Amino acid sequence: MTATATAPTDAKAVRTPPGSSPWQLARRELRRRPAVRISFVVVALFVLMAVTAPWLSALGGWTPDEFDKSAVDPYLGGLPIGNLGGISSEHWLGVEPATGRDLFARVVHGAQVSLLIAFTATAIVVLTGTAAGIAAGYFGGRVDTVLSRLMDLTMSFPSLIFMIAMMSVAKDVNRIVLMTAVIGVFGWPGVARVVRGQTLSLKHREYVDAARVGGSTSWRILTRDVLPGVSGPVIAYTTLLIPGMISTEAALSYLGVGVRPPTPSWGQMIAESVAFYETDPMYFIIPSTFLFLAVLAFTLLGDALRDILDPRGGRT
């Protein structure tokens, strides 16, 4: 009877060795889930594609802005010559109707633009939100009141309308920098609220009280004791933010207020392909597939990390 009762505990101990760090648990759990392993590989491939975009387009033999009039038929409204949108050994993913620009070169450079904006905006959101959340939760009082009201104000603001308005009126600015800043400004309150709640539960723990009694400064307590405690939920939340940032950039570019030609963007390519979806469906399918795979892979990976690093937050 006793052996039967203790068997599950012993098996669990084997699966989860004592003293395992969150990262060791994460790696162990990720290896057990085939879908997550595939998502991780897809994410790694997209990041590699974005980093090596200039070399990949050079390997294909075309730049994203180079026209190939010989690849389109002027007598058929500029439709690509050949099957499946002009896919051939010269143009690996076909060409853009009317202009003949190489789709492979434009897709890989579009990945660079989308991931650059997504990662940079996410970094702004996470750094700002983490700093504000820790300050509000740890210091409390007026600091908490001011920061909490600022969070409420920012979250209640019609951010999408403001983004469209700002991107429409800003003419002679770097569109990538402006889009990154605008997206980052409106995204931090969500992270701040998560971090604030975690900080409130951590600041009265025994080890924090011991550090406070021992004469540690607030900065040392925040960086040595509180910040490691909130890192798990923040990492999980960060991974889930990235697909939303990619979708936001694609949506703004699709509406014509994001990245402007000749800079390639997946959302911009999808918008331009609407006029050709009946005559050249591959022009619509290719950037849409890349956008779908990127968002799906980051979402699945983020869900897995949330379940592992922040199981209570995942259940609620």
Task: Describe the SSE topology.
Blueprint: H1 2-15, H2 22-31, H3 34-51, H4 53-60, E1 72-73, E2 79-80, H5 103-139, H6 141-156, H7 159-169, H8 175-202, H9 206-213, H10 218-254, H11 266-273, H12 281-309, H13 311-315
Antiparallel strand pairs: 1-2
Helix pairs in contact: 2-12, 3-5, 3-12, 4-5, 5-6, 5-8, 5-10, 6-8, 7-8, 8-10, 9-10, 10-11, 10-12, 11-12
Give an account of the 3D structure.
With 316 residues, the chain is an all-alpha fold. Helices cover 72% and strands 1% of the residues. It is built from 13 helices and 2 strands; from the N terminus they run ααααββααααααααα. The protein has a two-stranded antiparallel ribbon with strand order 1-2. β1 and β2 (79-80) form a beta hairpin. The longest helix has 37 residues, at 103-139. It is elongated, with a radius of gyration of 24 Å. The relative contact order is 0.13.
Order of helix and strand elements from N to C terminus: HHHHEEHHHHHHHHH
**Using only CA atoms, what is the Rg?**
24 Å
User: Mean pLDDT, nearest integer?
Assistant: 82
Q: Indicate the low-confidence ranges by residue numbers.
A: 1-19
Q: How do the strands line up in the largest sheet?
A: 1-2
The helix content, as a percent range, equals over 70%
What fraction strand? Answer: under 5%
Largest sheet: 2 strands, antiparallel
Spatial separation of the terminal alpha carbons: 36 Å
How many β-strands, per DSSP? 2
Discrete helix count: 13
